[in-house]
């Protein structure tokens, strides 16, 4: 089956609208002879003369009259498909966005993000999915619309990334803990019993590297998979939790926080999304909401 020349659709629409080869040629920026050739092709394709001479002008055939409105609608549909997407009417936007984040992100940024989304688009919903690994498959297959976290070598190379904020590790203990008073030296910090946070079950990391450079080793009493769990344990025991500061603000209420006595590299928390959503107006609005909330949260 031969693929039709869709350029002829626009030519047909203009010819039937103008009812004149000369006027149609001027409207499309063509010469009269070129438009006459296009009319000949249309006659061959449709099997109908379409426009016939009547005196000094042209009149449409019954087939042309039947095609005129249909051709106009098709051209309008094609133009709508090819024009840039318009900004969504947020008041009417009814869409559920799935965000894969850590518990700390939801605890600290979720309330403000939910409020902002509800204010702009009352019919939109947010679905928060817990981030248990760094697998990029949910972004690729569309299960997840947006993800937050620290980008590393395991992140998909095709993903779009935008930094949200920088964070740093701090120490956290319960009220009345020995480290809640007095200066905290590397030695005092290392002597306590610690909680290690690792989804992979590791008991060492950047903090241990920094202590090792000073000839110190901290004692890890337990290993957990998330910062919320670490803080819950530290709140009820004499264990020391080391957690990202901005990611855990609400979770640390009523506890004692202090800067780590060793230097550790800062963290850059970013949002990630798949390229197919890059130009989607509703998704762009969501990214603006996340960026604004992260910028205003202390």
Detailed description of the structure:
With 298 residues, the protein is α/β, with parallel strands linked by helices. Helix content is 39%, strand content 22%. The chain contains ten helices and twelve strands. The protein has helices spanning 7-18, 21-28, 32-46, 62-82, 103-120, 137-140, 186-191, 206-212, 227-236, 281-296; strands at 51-54, 57-60, 96-101, 125-130, 146-150, 160-167, 169-173, 193-197, 219-224, 240-244, 256-259, 267-273. The strands form three sheets. A five-stranded mixed beta sheet has the order 4-3-5-12-6, covered by helices on one side. A five-stranded mixed beta sheet has the order 9-8-10-7-11, with helices on one face. It has a two-stranded antiparallel ribbon with strand order 1-2. Helix 8 (206-212) links the parallel strand 8 and strand 9 (219-224). Helix 1 crosses helix 2 (21-28), helix 2 (21-28) packs across helix 3 (32-46) and helix 5 (103-120) packs across helix 10. The chain is rod-shaped and about 105 Å long.
End-to-end distance: 64 Å
What kind of sheet is the major sheet? 5 strands, mixed
Helix content range: 25-40%
Output the helix-strand order.
Answer: HHHEEHEHEHEEEHEHEHEEEH
Query: Order of strands in the sheet with the most strands?
Result: 4-3-5-12-6
List the total number of helices.
10
Number of strands: 12
Mean pLDDT: 90
The outline comes out as rod-shaped
Which regions have little confidence, pLDDT < 50, spanning 5+ residues? none
* Percent in strands: 15-25%
Q: Which structural class do the helices and strands define?
A: alpha/beta
Radius of gyration of CA atoms, rounded to a whole number: 32 Å
